[in-house]
Amino acid sequence: MVVLHSTDKGNNGVGVPLEPFLHQVGGHLSMLQYDAYTVCKPLISQEQKFYESLPLAMRCFTPQYKGTITVHLRRDSRGHLGLVANPLKENLEPLQVSPDSRAVAIWQTLQHTASSDSSPRPLAQLAHSLKESTAQVLLSSDGHLSAQASALLQSADGSPGERRGFNPWGLHCHQAHLTRLCSEYPEDKRHPFLLLENVVSQYKQPCILDLKMGTRQHGDDASEEKKARHMKKCAQSTSACLGVRICGMQVYQTAKKSFLCKDKYYGRKLSEEGFRQALSQFLHDGTRLRSELLEPILRKLQALLSVIRSQSSYRFYSSSLLIIYDGQELPQDAPETAQGTTSGDPAKVDVRMIDFAHTTYKGSRNGHTTHEGPDPGYIFGLENLIGILQDIQEGDRMFEELSGL
């Protein structure tokens, strides 16, 4: 196991300093970056059990599970609070720590900017002083990064060159998590975290759509109050009519060289037609519809549908589905491989299921409900998602045909 010795002279401890995962587009638990290829999140035993008993057919549709770590709060010499991971012995695979962490650089820049000369202030205090949430500080009303946040994102050498976009939702979740840990636990308290594959590590400008799947979001163990709350959310969103709703997304806009970002509150307000338009927006780079992505996305979704239909007793309550592609296209003169395709296939897409804290299946919860057959709500959502994408594909083909007349 590889661990990093702290570079902060004021602390002689060892560990891997964790930073916000800058491509987190949804969820409420903080997703943190361990290294370039690994992320971690607070451990929930039901989710850990799911990963440890994952059916073989589902493994290509979920992040690789890499084990567990413990995490604790630590304050550096400037007064900034952060989280540090202490790898556990049961993790047998060595994890390579990236020496050039973009997440670390951005988070430290934001913390430094949010601090006064006399007393360090976290980002949440900056937001409070502006009477806005952390996310609102970083995100403008139309979903593009605000000028304040964009101004911080200069190139690594400090020159005013290429600005590096990121999704502010991850910072929002991270700050909320730090605030909760500070108020509820001592700094030396150890917290268990799951280590998972960073499913967007291979993409230069990862475009991500986070979809909450199914017509029901509450788990079998939900209280009556929580059950009623989630049922209301579903009834008032596309979860009821389509079995799927948008929980967040980021789309790389090539002309602006930045991400267009939408959060879960945007997704909850969408009508069925609005959902269709949002799917088209996710596939649009600000200049054109990336129509070449539709066929590979549909193939992946249809393969996933086949797998879900074969999983008896599973209920993926409150889980999400990620659709991922690279917003940075290769130049048209990119070299071809021996198979005749361009290296780093510009139409490469990925589809991954995430968030299994409320997933149940036969044997997962002693004394609780065991469901029969495949998950009908999840299947309903997938079928509708596939149908809408097929409609977009057909509409694009008709447009091309009419344009060629």
From TrEMBL:
Coiled coil in keyword set: no
An MF annotation (GO) of this entry: ATP binding
Gene3D superfamilies: Inositol polyphosphate kinase (3.30.470.160)
SUPFAM superfamilies membership: SAICAR synthase-like (SSF56104)
Keyword annotations from UniProtKB, A to Z: ATP-binding, Kinase, Nucleotide-binding, Transferase
Coiled-coil zones: none
Pfam family, one: IPK
Biological processes annotated in GO: inositol phosphate biosynthetic process; phosphatidylinositol phosphate biosynthetic process
InterPro entries: IPK, IPK_sf
Enzyme Commission number: 2.7.-.-
GO CC terms of this entry: cytoplasm; nucleus
Family: Belongs to the inositol phosphokinase (IPK) family.
Record's protein name: Kinase
Species per Swiss-Prot/TrEMBL record: Phodopus roborovskii (Roborovski's desert hamster)
Designated gene of the protein: Ip6k3
